[in-house]
Amino acid sequence: AITADWGTGLYGAPKIAATIRRMAAGRKFDVAMHLGDIYYSGTEDEVDDRFLKVWPSDAATVNRALNGNHEMYSGGFGYFKLILPKFGQESSYFAIQNEQWLLVGLDTAYVDHDMDNAQVAWVTVVINQAQTRKVVFFSHQQPFSRLADQGPKLQRALRALLEGNRIRAWYWGHEHDCVIYDEHSKWKLFGRCLGNGGIPSA
Questions:
Q1: pTM for this prediction
Q2: What does R_g of the chain's alpha carbons equal in angstroms?
Q3: How confident is the model over 167-200, as pLDDT tens digits?
Q4: CA–CA dist 19, 108 (Å, integer)
């Protein structure tokens, strides 16, 4: 179960939480993931009231949350001090795998719309050890967009993995729309924007 830009406590967010719980009634999701942004500044009060109190954590075996630019507006304290311990999540980036899939959550907000060298080195090692598993990325900010020329820093940071066609799909938020992209002509990945979780968009 995946949603992004969901941490408003308003608009569609409660309906999404209820839908996730309803869909998990017969069998829990293996993973429920938030792709970042708790509004408006990711303060500790907002994290508690608009995210943790209403997130459907009981609907999944594992819960994960990614860092977003709004969490960083207040220094990231709500995200790092409250969410990560609550979810038993050791870092703002992570990997989960089974025999067929490798799911990689990236932190694209600590360094805004980019990744530091340590994270790039980590993700490269993780993917090099993935063998034949299909790789799916999750992040808050996007590697590309139909709306604007966004993503060049991420593209540069991950150039070798993108040009090596190692990523099968990439899910992100940030833009407040739900957008399904065709397979990328160069990188052979499928992009999905899920930024419509809690903010109305005209």
A1: 0.97
A2: 16
A3: 999 999 999 999 999 999 999 999 999 999 998 8
A4: 28
